[in-house]
Amino acid sequence: MQLTAERLRALNEISRNLRRTVVEMIYTAGSGHPGGSLSSVEIITALYLEKMKFDPRNPLDPRRDRFVLSKGHAAPTLYAMFAYLNVIPRSELLHLRKLGSRLQGHPDMKSVPGVEMSSGPLGLGLSVGAGMALAAKLNQAPYHTYVLLGDGEIQEGIIWEAVMTANKYKLNNLTAILDHNGVQLDGICDEIMPLGDVAAKFAAFGWRPFTCDGHDIASILNALEEATSYREGPSIIIAKTVKGKGVSYMEGKNIWHGKKIDDHEYRQAVAEIGGISYAE
Question: Which domains are assigned to the chain?
Answer without folding.
Answer: 5-273 (3.40.50.970)
